[in-house]
Amino acid sequence: MKPDLFQAPDYYAVDELLTEEHRMVRDAARSWVKRDVSPIIEDYAQRAEFPKQIIKGLADIGAFGPYIPQEYGGAGLDQISYGLIMQEIERGDSGVRSTASVQSSLVMYPIWKYGSEAQRKKYLPKLASGEFMGCFGLTEPNHGSDPSGMTTHFKDAGDHYVLNGAKLWISNAPFADIAIVWAKNEEGRIHGLIVERGMEGFTTPETHHKWSLRASATGELIFDNVKVPKDHILPNKSGLGAPLGCLDSARYGIAWGAIGAAMDCYDTALRYAKERIQFGKPIAGTQLQQKKLAEMITEITKAQLLAWRLGVLRNEGKATSAQISMAKRNNVEMAIKIAREARQVLGGMGITGEYSIMRHIMNLESVITYEGTHDIHLLITGMDITGISAFK
Ligand code: TGC
Ligand code: FAD
Questions:
Q1: Is 371 a catalytic residue?
Q2: Any atom of ligand 1 within 6 Å of the Cβ of 240
Q3: Residues of the chain whose pLDDT is less than 50?
Q4: 99 shares a domain with 54
């Protein structure tokens, strides 16, 4: 892969909306991605392997639990710092950002918000340092967009629960030490359970042959009469709203992360267009390539402002789930369109692993699907503005 020459665009001086702490956190993540992710990520993606050696670096830049209080090992940062960290990581690779999103918003968040104090103390510091890695099991083979129909279930067996069922498409599953598993009790109520690797009957086969998010490990979670101790249930929230609350936090991070992928594609295309000579002049001097580049920076700027405003609302505790859906949907679509346009600017070179763009395109095909598909987020906005659900 070519050396990482990334220069972040900031057309509307969004930097001036950030505090000194935001910029410090962002710059630390940016330097780490340049040093430890960019040089290796293409090879790992080509081999379809998660680079485990970056786990410590992710912990060091505060990517595991950015907003979790420091007393539990988190970084104690605000929502905008969290977003900026996701932006920088996804600038490197969406799969690496996935690993961080799952660890922070889908594993640490539910333990912090819905767990007991003993669970918080037992798991959060180890998850923040990367000593433990986690995964989040909501999706099932027959229940993706509609998780309320899940069939994974547990029964009370005296001093423990017995868990049966299966989860599919689970990021980090093949190497996770713990899984937050959403399952129904005998009354059909959804609860979160902390399942640990090594519990008898619990297996995590890897999903192979993905063309997308190749540097992120994805797998299944299979539960065959797994005995789960009773103190592994998350006691403080149940019902579908519990997993959906975690998704709010992860979707917010993705709204920022997608900006990073788009910035990387734009920056690569701009540099290439200025250097590539055809018909005796740089292709950047042609109207058609300028149209592409001008539209890219316009869309990135709009997405930055949307994410920043959402971050302010989240810091104030005022952001709604529907506002988060709008930002996730808009920014991921923005990024995937920019990635496709940027690839064309590079001509044939755009399809090679010499540049990051093709990898971003492939990754974003997952990002536009997971954490709620593009269409599901549109229906969430539709329901919010009309008051009528079009899901069922
Ligand atoms: P509905 O009846 O609307 O709601 C059920 C209960 O949940 C509450 N609720 C929420 N709570 C918190 N946050 C949200 N975003 C919420 N949305 C709804 C709601 O108020 C209600 O509460 P209560 O107390 O009245 O019971 O539920 P529904 O069955 O009609 O479904 C709504 C729908 C379709 C929006 C929801 O099911 C949905 O979002 N589906 C998409 C599924 C999804 O996003 N799956 C993601 C799996 S995890 C993943 O992809 C990780 S990728 C990891 C990586 O980054 O690598
Ligand atoms: P389906 O729900 O079958 O949807 C298929 C199509 O139908 C979509 O286009 C959808 O928009 C459309 N559709 C569905 N319902 C409606 C409707 N009512 N109206 C109109 N259109 C509709 N899940 C986890 O729990 N944990 C993870 O860590 C995780 N990681 C993932 C990693 C990757 C790489 C991928 C690809 C997925 C991951 N997922 C994870 C699963 C992901 O959240 C689901 O793939 C996603 O929610 C969609 O579910 P589905 O694939 O079953 O599609």
A1: yes
A2: yes
A3: none
A4: yes
